[in-house]
Amino acid sequence: MISSAAHPGDGAWQFLGMTGRVDMATTLDARFEINNNTGIAQEVYLSCPTMNFGMTRPELAAKPISTAGGIITGTLTNGMVTYNGTSSYITLPKEGNIFEINTTIDIHRINHSGDSRFPRGTIIILLFNNTGITVLNGAYIKLKGAYTSLVNSSLTLVSEGNGTWREVNRNL
Fold first, then answer.
1. Which of the four, 25, 80, 95, 119, has the lowest number of CB atoms within 10 Å?
2. Could you give the angle at the alpha carbon of 11 between the alpha carbons of 13 and 20, nearest 5°?
3. Could you count the other beta carbons within 10 Å of the beta carbon of residue 38?
4. Residue 82 pLDDT more than 80?
5. What kind and span of H or E run contains 101?
6. Which pTM value belongs to this model?
């Protein structure tokens, strides 16, 4: 494994790069990983993640990813976490966007308080392993209608950033 130096955390744009030998007999499995071990939520902006062979800096030939848009190619993998909660007010870990729900308790609220809230626009998918779990349609979870799970059903929600969620899609 080859890794770059860490960003200094100074709030300024930095060029982070690394060099390493490529073995022609080994399949290249390049990955971009953000590792936040501070325990504090951080915002990360990527301008132009790229891989370049040789010792020259990459050029911005393609449009960088910005608020105006951009393109990421290849497989984008979301974190998938198993949830085994015991309360109808659930707190999902922020390490995932896809949650395998193994509880049999109805869901009334999701990450509703302070630091546990997901940022506005975060999309999560709840995958249900049990039948009969009702997700309460109300002020905190805004659904298209009543939702009671079936085995292998799913519910996709988007965070409004204030502890409330809105339904995007469902699969029953």
1. 25
2. 45
3. 8
4. yes
5. strand 98-101
6. 0.64
Q: Which of 49, 133, 9, 36 minimizes the C-alpha distance to 94?
A: 36
What is the C-alpha separation between 86 and 102, in angstroms, rounded?
10
Buried b / exposed e over 14-26, threshold 16 CB at 10 Å, is eeeeeeeeeeeee
Helix (H) or strand (E) holding 123: strand 123-128
User: Which candidate, 81, 77, 79, 103, places its Cα nearest to that of 90?
Assistant: 103
**pLDDT tens sequence across 30-72:** 666 777 777 777 777 666 556 555 666 655 555 556 666 666 6
C-beta of residue 131 within 8 angstroms of C-beta of residue 149: yes
Q: Which amino acid is at 63?
A: K
Which two three-digit tokens encode residue 97?
């966007």
Q: Are strands 141-142 and 147-148 parallel, antiparallel or unpaired?
A: unpaired
For the record, the structure tokens of 88 come out as 């109808």
SS3 99: strand
Quote the CA–CA distance of 30 and 87 in Å, as a whole number: 40
